[in-house]
Design a protein that fits this description.
This protein has 362 residues and is mainly alpha-helical. It has helices at 2-40, 46-51, 67-70, 85-88, 102-110, 120-129, 135-144, 200-214, 229-241, 246-252, 280-285, 303-306, 320-329, 333-360; strands at residues 155-156, 171-172, 182-183, 197-198, 266-268, 294-298, 311-317. α6 crosses α7.
Length: 362
């Protein structure tokens, strides 16, 4: 009798252990499901994603963002390393939309090759000011500097001798900058303008373009090429002192150190009236200049990006590969530079660093 009772107790104990194990397993499964549900709730519809500009209208989401990626420890951490800087900012105290937090938004941003983690706060502020902008445009504009007024937050250039250098109202050449130049033949220059100079690469490309145009009885001549920084200072100051507003002067004239003419890579191909639009020369080079490595630097309708009025006469040498790509893309040089050229340079620097580290560890 005692043995039977003990046997029953043993069986009941085993059953209780199994029940406890099953309950624990069920509890864990339920917690995992709740976590997944909560995570997916951040992006619960295509409409929500479109509100955040994470996908374009009509585009379908590719899947959920992994939870471990949302923390983005490299690009989102605050200055003190205690969490997202958004948590410390009064402006970022709320979600950017009902669809997800700023951290979610910036995970999508960080997937672009031209994303810069040091600009994370600027991206966010600019997005708040321009909620309808796509994430590509937000990052492109901020990388250019367009979240600041022109001539604000100026960067001193260290790559002035690179043929791809971006000189504009946010990027300034050092006051002592001067490239090596060659003089163009007088026959290739506009009458009465005096000697004209370009860097060797740009000069050779201009000569080829000039001679090709000559074959069809067109005469593309250099009206303005290299200009020193001190000369540009004088031009800008004289224009302001003439009674024009600074805003008007800035729309047409660069301030000293900010002109592409300092590089020896820019050439104005204009008539004395600064008009080329109704000429056969313009009709030819607007669709041919890129074949020789030149782009129309300040295109029509892009004044808000370049900071200058449309200048169909201002050509900039960037090399044939980039010129053709820019021509086909329809982008301004600012947009192309920060999304393509700068990304390539960053990847090259990273590759060199990785190779150096690898060699050091051998």
């Amino acid at each position: 009798m005692k043995r039977s009772r003990r046997r029953k107790l043993c069986v009941l104990s085993i059953i209780n252990v199994f029940l406890i194990i099953i309950l624990i397993a069920c509890s864990n499964v339920l917690q995992q499901r709740n976590a997944i549900k909560a995570e997916r709730q951040v992006f619960n519809s295509v409409d929500d994603l479109q509100k955040l500009s994470l996908i374009q209208p009509g585009e379908q989401p590719s899947g959920d963002i992994p939870k471990d990626k949302k923390t983005d420890p490299d690009g989102i951490q605050g200055k003190n390393g205690t969490g997202s800087f958004f948590e410390d900012s009064e402006k970022a105290g709320t979600e950017i939309s009902s669809a997800g937090t700023a951290e979610d938004l910036f995970f999508a941003y960080s997937q672009l090759p031209y994303y810069k983690e040091e600009y994370a706060e600027r991206y966010y502020d600019y997005q708040v000011q321009n909620p309808d902008f796509t994430h590509e445009k937000v990052i492109t504009d901020v990388n250019i500097g367009l979240d600041n007024d022109f001539y604000k937050n100026i960067k001193m250039l260290e790559d002035g001798y690179d043929i791809t250098v971006l000189v504009n109202k946010y990027n300034k050449l050092p006051d002592d900058f001067k490239p090596e130049l060659v003089e163009l033949e007088p026959s290739m220059c506009a009458p009465g303008r005096g000697p004209q100079h370009l860097r060797e690469e740009a000069a050779q490309a201009f000569i080829k373009m000039h001679e090709a145009a000559k074959q069809i009885n067109l005469n593309i001549t250099a009206y303005g090429t290299y200009r020193s920084i001190s000369t540009q200072h004088a031009i800008w100051n004289n224009a302001v002192n003439s009674g024009r507003t600074i805003e008007d002067v800035d729309s047409l004239n660069s301030r000293g150190g900010h002109s592409e003419h300092h590089t020896g890579l820019a050439v104005d191909v204009v008539l004395n009236s600064y008009s080329v639009l109704n000429t056969g020369e313009y009709e030819w080079y607007k669709d041919k200049a890129h074949e020789y490595g030149f782009i129309i630097r300040y295109p029509e309708g892009k004044e808000h990006i370049t900071g200058y009025n449309y200048e169909p006469w201002h050509l900039r040498y960037v090399g044939q590969e980039f010129a053709e790509d820019i021509y086909n893309s329809g982008l301004t040089y600012e947009e192309y530079y920060v999304t393509v050229i700068q990304s390539r340079k960053s990847m090259k620097v990273l590759s060199i660093k990785q190779n150096d580290d690898s060699a050091a560890n051998r």
